[in-house]
Queue: 2 jobs
Job 1
Amino acid sequence: MKIETILAHAGLCTDSTTGAISTPIYQTATFRHPALGVSTGFDYSRTINPTRLALENVIAELESGDRGFAFASGMAAISAVLMMFKSGDHLIVSDDLYGGTYRIFEKSFRQFGLSVTYADTTDPGAVRDAVIPGKTRAVFIETPTNPLMKITDLEEAIEFAHQKGMLAVVDNTFMTPYLQRPLEFGADIVVHSGTKFLGGHNDVLAGAVVARSEELSERIGFIQNATGGVLGPQDSWLLLRGLKTLALRLEKQQENAQAVARWLDRNDKIKKVHYPGLPGHPGHSVQRKQSSGFGAMLSFRVPDASWAERIINRVKVITFAESLGGVESLITYPVRQTHGDIPVEMREKIGVTDDLLRLSVGIEHADDLICDLEQAMAAE
Ligand SMILES: *Cc1c(COP(=O)(O)O)cnc(C)c1O
């Protein structure tokens, strides 16, 4: 089946007892056993819950994986993946990445002996140089990166990781399986912040992990049950509900993003637009090769910090808030918000500076978004 159909049917008729069209919200912690040694297949909701299971099955199917696992947030999902490693292990991580991912490496996992090198994963030479023989166990890739929208060639990076006996983990939050499926390029694990495009309505926090092989699924499944950062039944249902319209939302969102990016690119007050859908973007052709679209995230550079502040304070249709991927357009100031925990030197090195704004483009009419930016930038 085509992905639009899988999405539209997310959670459809999973309850054979009643024939409910929509997967019921099984708001229960535990399940009655019919007799000693007999189970319905469900025993305790940390381990397995029917609503969460319906969601996990759809996510696994969408990402072409073996099994999916739903977590209480993207960070809970990423934590579960990091718990697969042990003290002494080393990871190579995209240097331009979600601030919370940086924070968890630096403030949480480093103290357990996990070490990390941040490298520009769009540059195969940089990845090669970062390998510590006998210690590097995985490459953790964000593509496009957050917030600079740099594109890593997945096929190349994954092949390199496997040559070196390392796992390839991809944070697929920005693209979603509708546009990009890293497991089909051989990646071992995909992680998601379901809070973003998968949920799509800025109303639920969620995370997901999809593993490619049975062996990896066993390991992630063990960690999910043992550590318990699971997604609750209500929130699992909200994610199923959101997924149904993912294809429609993303089509509209990326059409709007393309229009906004083109308008910004033509505007002589804007120094730079980072959107892989613009032909001049350095990752444009790689993105074309590995994804079926360019997504709805972009960032742009204004003349200076006072401009950034003015736009943030004056937008009316676009909302100034953290997060992304929802039907409502949001503008974010990475240096002060999502990337505030990244040290200044590292931010400057990668280019996350005070003239950079990030835009998550929603499903509004593109003209309204453009007019809003125009009035926000106009002289007082
Ligand atoms: C938001 C985000 C996360 C973290 O997800 P939460 O649901 O906020 O915990 C991880 N990676 C990327 C790329 C994100 O945008």
Note: The chain has two domains: 3-243, 246-377.
Job 2
Amino acid sequence: MHLTMSALILAATAVTAHPGSHSSRRPPFQGDFTINQYQLYPENADFDFKTGKLYIGQLWNASLGIYDPYTQHHEVVDFPGISHNPLLNMGGVGVETRTGRVSIVANGPLEFPTNGANIAGDRWLISYDAKQKKEVYRVNLTATSQGKYGGFQDVDYDPAGNTFVVGSFPGTLTKVSKDGKRVTPWYLPATINSTNKGLTGIATVGWDLLAYGDESGELWKFDTRAEKGVPTVVPVSRNHTFAPSDAIYLPLKYGNKVLLVAHSAAGVSVFESKDGWKSAKYKGTVPLPQLDPGTVLVAPVQIGDGIYQIFAYFGDSGLGGQGTAGNRTQFPFHDISDQVDMLLGKCDKEHQRRSEDEEIPASHWYYKVHQRRSEETGAVNPASWYYKGQERRDEAVGEEIIETAGWYYKGHQRRSEQFEEAGLETAGWYYKSGGS
Ligand SMILES: *[C@@H]1O[C@H](CO)[C@@H](O)[C@H](O)[C@H]1NC(C)=O
Ligand SMILES: *[C@@H]1O[C@H](CO)[C@@H](O)[C@H](O)[C@H]1NC(C)=O
Ligand SMILES: *[C@@H]1O[C@H](CO)[C@@H](O)[C@H](O)[C@H]1NC(C)=O
Ligand SMILES: *[C@@H]1O[C@H](CO)[C@@H](O)[C@H](O)[C@H]1NC(C)=O
Ligand SMILES: *[C@@H]1O[C@H](CO)[C@@H](O)[C@H](O)[C@H]1NC(C)=O
């Protein structure tokens, strides 16, 4: 056995890290990155904060990817009978940090393109022990659904180690006991019609399970301790038009108080709850970057300290025909941490990541209360919006800045009085505090 010194140190770190929390020994990880791996095609991903590994549902190969963002090492786990089977895809993945177990869902290639009209075939939930590198169990979800519902696409856990699987055609929840032996159709809608698209994403917080994507456009909450799943509606304040959605996610860095929803063609919507998800507030949507045609947003995920958008490249033509992998090798992960922080009003020193040489010269005007003034003309151009948390100016002492913040906004959002804190528009420039 050949063990280098650094490998020994890493092994020791893994043992002493606090379970479920950031490993403080690992260097901060943030910023855009790209995984160079032929035919990776991620559909969903989950990060294990204990081991620092990113688990990826590799769509067309129907396999599990295990990526180490710190070393760029990538490992592929194939499942016999499932991986490279053209009748199966792999998507939803969730790691139970406490045990190191990874659940991954294998679904059919036709149900999403046919909007639930074709759900024929076997579907699987696999539990994989990432420490022992072995499959723990596999559940035939078609046996549970009797082939009447499908679109299984994400997983999460309750604190007792039960796994919940969300299906979208129609919206269902299946509960699987820790040992994989007891499989319960836990929530089913009144009418089972596979072409009624429903829930697309789930995320657990303690014993509660948040679910999203139902036709009603409501955010739902279930008590996982109940015998059967009964949804209650979480009232969401501030108007939000619900676009087609996919996975939802509660980033660790916000202590389960912030929910991210992937809106396929719109971006990551940000919701915040200050009362344990009795109610929530829509904070705004982080838009999508420029994308190739056919590319859609499938999931948000926290990796290290960063929040990332994951894309599916449905515009690529499959080398083996429709529903197979294309020829792509580069899979970029786009860091949206700053935008999410901004929508949450968390503007602190962490935002000073922009290097000094990228600085933009000071502007010739400034915002005072609600008016934009030009230094050249003195013209006052009243705006219907204003910046919040900028420099404090005191009317009594004139234009003087009496307090300068120790931080600045980068890519500031335009806020409207009408919509309060909505980030309506992102500016390509920023203020740097410092005075006149
Ligand atoms: C996908 O499978 C192909 C073989 O069909 C292989 O060349 C490629 O490396 C695989 N990619 C991943 C990410 O598993
Ligand atoms: C999975 O369950 C379905 C429905 O009961 C059954 O038809 C199929 O044979 C099962 N698949 C396997 C591989 O056992
Ligand atoms: C299912 O719903 C679709 C409309 O979404 C309808 O056309 C179809 O008749 C329904 N099927 C059944 C069996 O009720
Ligand atoms: C919310 O938005 C919808 C659709 O844009 C609109 O019909 C509705 O009137 C709005 N509700 C409020 C309270 O603004
Ligand atoms: C990948 O496939 C596209 C067509 O789908 C083609 O235009 C492109 O040249 C291919 N790239 C490589 C590296 O083979």
Note: The chain has two domains: 2-344, 354-435.
